[in-house]
Amino acid sequence: MERKMSWTVADAVDYKGFPADRSKTGGWIPAALILGIEICERLSTMGIAVNLVTYLVGTMHLPSATSANVVTDFMGTSFLLCLLGGFLADSFLGRHKTIAIFAIIQTLGTGTLAIATKLPQLRPIPCHASASLTCKPANGFQMGVLYMALYLIALGTGGLKSSVSGFGTDQFDEKDEEEKAQMAYFFNRFFFFISTGTLMAVTVLVYLQDEVGRSWAYGICSFSMFVAILIFLSGTKRYRYKKSLGSPIVHIFQVIVAAIKKRKKDVPYNVELLYEDTPEATRIHHTDQFQLLDKAAIVAEGDFEGNVVSAPNPWKLCSVTRVEEVKMMVGLLPIWATTIIFWTTYAQMITFSVEQASTMERSIGRFQIPAGSLTVFFVAAILITLAVYDRLIMPFWKKWKGKPGFTNLQRIAIGLVLSTFGMAAAALAEKKRLAVARAAGATTATLPISVFLLIPQFFLVGAGEAFIYTGQLDFFITQSPKGMKTMSTGLFLTTLSLGFFVSSFLVSVVKRLTGSNDGQGWLADNINHGRLDCFYGLLAVLDIINFVLYLVCAAWYKPRKPKPALQMETIVNGSSAEDKC
């Protein structure tokens, strides 16, 4: 009997619903089949995002600020929909079906985008720079088709992000030492393939868009995702499937609803009178923070269905442990709120910074760098910073302070500081570019100034992301309750989403307050006539204010020491958010 049990995985089943046979399911090969989906998702989303603003301005003839907002709204929606994908996977579909369904949706989205950029009827009539004042912007129908394609892609991306890495995790048994080691190896490869997909997107795919044709580039994305789906489905019989414990979002709402229903009741002086049914080994002890939520654990008449003591109505009565889990999540919100502004700064790297690059000299010999490919310096800054931190800073810090590197809150702080310097550098570079533009004249298509002037802003913000991304990831994973690791990853991804939306809001406000009827102002329809340097300066000031608020929140927050058992779990769940890169 013991031999038979050793060949099955306790908490996993096969595609027929029987206990998963360790020799026939799971492991590295099925997990590798999932990687193709992630590579193609990165290739599509990033390849579109980093070069979309040039298409909107140059082909669809939209104003500069409007184009930037289209891009940031698209990216913000992609990350926000991760919550929807996670909810569907946890509550109804499961990770396998969620990946398959949303991968098909993204395939349809990239296919629609290929058609939208190919057919002349779906874009306005071309015009020359010398006649820019007579250029007609895209009409409602043309923009409608473009929006439909973009938001199909955003929906597909959101569903995939929520489940791909988690389903990869399901293919390994953490209780088996050999498979546990394979899991770590899988996530190392997972991060490598994510980086590969991103680099291919900002180099090869952007080059194809500019030199061969956008419809060809997007068609390649659609076809490659279709092939990845077939590869993914081919492993259906070899995958391990784990039963979901339910959506953490539902659990949070249950505590909130129960607390609201009992808002007029008094919490007993003796907290031991509060309801608790969690086993002692996994129990979280009561704390005095956010005492209003404690009312969800007050036992009252009608809390138990059919008078069965073991079956309380979760919308009326919650255990102390469940309440404390929600308290832990609420405690993360101040840090969560003060990291959003970083991603607002990040949004400028794929919008206005790319538009700046499109007006500058980008030639190296006979080769001209595509404007969107300049973000390769951004990706390089991330990889270089991570390597320096891992190989130099961490060993030095361990010898000096006896600690393995900076804490998660310290890394977030460093990221915020670097992004502030990045915006200051961007303001100075733009001031120089505008001076050259005024001297060269408004009709000059390519300004006599090197695009490499923009490298400092890409490098500083990229280095900042390396610190803040790993810091946020570590913070949200280690400081959240064990049963809400997926939820904490989703909370982390919402900072990216809201950062893009804040960027759209800020651009709209600045455009309204500084603009004029002739399309001028800080964010002019043509950036050579605007004051983008002032906008970057405004972001630098907002970064400074936000950093002060962050220091206050970080001082208020009392970190919880993670249990040793969470170390591998941190690696696993942490990697699930790495698919942003």
Automatic annotation (TrEMBL):
GO molecular function: transmembrane transporter activity
Record-linked Gene3D superfamilies: MFS general substrate transporter like domains
Ranges that cross the membrane: 43-62, 74-93, 100-120, 140-160, 190-209, 215-233, 329-349, 369-389, 409-429, 449-469, 490-510, 535-557
BP GO annotations: oligopeptide transport
Membrane topology according to the record: Multi-pass membrane protein
Keywords tagged on the record: Membrane, Transmembrane, Transmembrane helix
A GO CC annotation given for this chain: membrane
Domain of life: Eukaryota
Cytoplasm found in the keyword field: no
Record family assignment: Belongs to the major facilitator superfamily. Proton-dependent oligopeptide transporter (POT/PTR) (TC 2.A.17) family.
Protein name: Protein NRT1/ PTR FAMILY 6.2-like isoform X1
Organism: Herrania umbratica
Gene that encodes it: LOC110410876
